[in-house]
Target: acetate--CoA ligase (ADP-forming)
Amino acid sequence: MGRFSGLFRPDRVGIVGATDREGSVGRSLVTNLDEHFDGEIVPINPGRDTVLGYDCYPDVASAPSIDLGVVVVPPSAVLDAVRDLGEAGTTNVVVITAGFGESGSEGARRERELRAVAEEYDIDLVGPNSLGVMSTPAGLNATFGPDIAREGSISFMSQSGAFITAVLDWANEEGISFRHVVSVGNKAVLDEVDFLRAWDEDEGTDVIVGYLEGIEDGQAFVQAAREVTSETPVVLVKSGRTDAGAQAASSHTGAIAGSEEAYEAGLDQAGVIRASTVEELFDYARGLSGLSTLESEGVAIVTNAGGPGVLTTDAVGDSSLELASFDDDTIEVLTAAMPEEAAVYNPIDVIGDADVDRFRTALERALADPNVGSAIVVSAPTAVLAYEDLAEMVLDVRDSYETPIVTCLMGGSRVDTAEGILRDAGVPNYFDPSRAVAGLDALARHDEITGRAADDPTAYDVDRERARSILERAADRTDNRLGVESMDLLDAYGIPTPTSAIVDDPVRARDVADDIDGDVVMKIVSPDISHKSDIGGVAVGVPTEEVEDTYEDLVARARNYQPNASILGVQVQEMVDLDAATETIVGMNRDPQFGPLLLFGLGGIFVEILEDTSIRVAPIGETEARSMVDEITAAPLLRGARGREPADIDAIVETLGRLSQLVTDFPALVELDVNPLVAGPDGVQAIDLRATVDTEDL
Model:
């Protein structure tokens, strides 16, 4: 375990606040450690000589050296206890005590002081407000939960201690096993990033799962998880998906909820498989921990029951997998071997009187088919079929073909023995066919994640100082917004814009129009008017001779619409041919956890109505930028659907890369919209700009 060996494999555990008082957390900790831990248990409490048969020490200084300190004293005494452990050389500490950042301003102050003490003594601290930690190989149950987990290869972190106790109780009934379990609590020092990295290096952990209410540093999480998920699967439940859920999470363990879009984008970029329920979390984990890599997406179904076979087929259709098409040899062999009433096309229905040998024949032939990458054995209980024998057959065939197999042996207690046989050999059994498919689907998704091309962002040649000077204009205004008058910001980062100028009188507008070939577009320029088209603040196709009158009309409309608006003038802009082009949008919104979120989608007046967009956490490389373009529903329009000339996709991708660099270079940019970004066969042009700047961060 490297850095965390003292946390999960300690030789001596000290409980500061240990007691033998019935119903106390201090007693539960000693009792839980006593049950399985083969190391030394050291109670520390000045009010006790012994605790449950163990010698009790009055303070840390008088106790033997401690590898792991567990603190369960009142909040006011926690800082002194952790400081004493630091003075004694203990570098691994779990603070069980609540009453810190989750409890208000006084608790938040106490948590800041706790963090400072931990930093002073270089302590790896879990909590506060933690249930504790478990390590099943060491028999370590340093929690006040009721039971230790079964020993396995899944490592589990949770921001809710209650979630751990409920899950472990359920998991023990389900036969789901764990390696390490940690209740991260308020994450004053150690957080999800630390445990991702630690468990990725742990040879005994083959899947990492977790329940999180918030991620403190989204950028660090994405970077760490990208590295981890290239080998070790990570599956998370992230609560607070709805507005109501996010509000609830913000008051629990002091979590600050970020936007759901940010989490969706960040977790996906990080290669994390996201589950929405506890069942999904562990259905995915069981498939990922026990099964080998898929050679193809084709799934074979072997069943003795027509209805469950159809349900399984539907579930495959809803997943990223596909129903395998058997080749002619497979159909010929199955036709000869199966009863006339059997179905030999996938799914294979061996019918209700099938014995184990008939199941074996069908399964072996299916796995021999070159189009099959995995198989699901679905069975309803019958009088002629012993589930234990069926389980042994599945394992025998699995070992011969080394192809991922999951089972769906349906029924009650008669399944238990067979399920244990399968579980011990790493084959997950599910009652529901859709859950069996979910286990395989998680495997396919992880294979896709490990095969992703990860490229670094391109470093474009840009003019940062020019961009900075443009952003600084916001400091001279009554608000912090910039508009089309600041289009030079895009030009400084190499994003194409049409010829244009901002003018403050009609004669100057005419002069600008004279220098532009053809008709022009004119727009009111005001940081106070966001939707210029809605108030008649945009005029398209204006001949040069009408420019002066149009100028007066635009200003008058703006004054009538919003008398107190700040009118900077009118933009006179070269017209862009939209007949062969598509209006798109590129933009950015800065999330409190993940930082800049890049957006791409169908633009113009439809962006808020259709919401056809894709989102990524910046910075991004070319691969991510290209996938943003491919993801939107309108992508076929850009690629030349129905006879349209294709847009210059490379120019869109480059624009996303340049925008990524801009918003990464300048954290002061809070929001930015380029709408529309007109994408045509000959490239792109940014037509309009709106930005919000945090002037204190320039």
About this structure: Residues 433-450 form the longest helix (18 residues).
